[in-house]
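hey m, so remember when u said the tokens were messed up on ur end? i reran from scratch. heres the input so u can diff it against urs
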Amino acid sequence: YIKVEAICPVSDWSDWSPCKATCGLGRVGRVRAIDLRKKCKQQKHTKEFKPCENRPCVGTDCEVSDWSLWGMCAEPCGRSTRARSREVIRRPTATGRPCPPLQEIGVCNAGGCASA
């Protein structure tokens, strides 16, 4: 006959792990081991977690290139439009400012065409 204990014996808790977030909210955990050499019916929990907070997340603002030169007018004569653009150099992170518009439309040939 083997004696069965009601609750499995466990080790002491480990130290808390480092915070899982590099910034902002995350979680930490710790564990303990069950002594498997003993016969038992009920096991205590072996993992435990709680929230943690590292330094606040500081975002990187979006960075864009300079505007390109204005393109050609869509129509050679009369009021028309033209465009210019710029590209994203660095996308924003965390709480950084979002990217501004990447295309701009302008009016051209506002004075009309000279008549012959």
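this time it looks ok to me. Strands lie at 5-7, 25-31, 40-42, 47-53, 63-64, 80-85, 88-90, 103-108. if urs says something different then somethings off w ur setup not the seq
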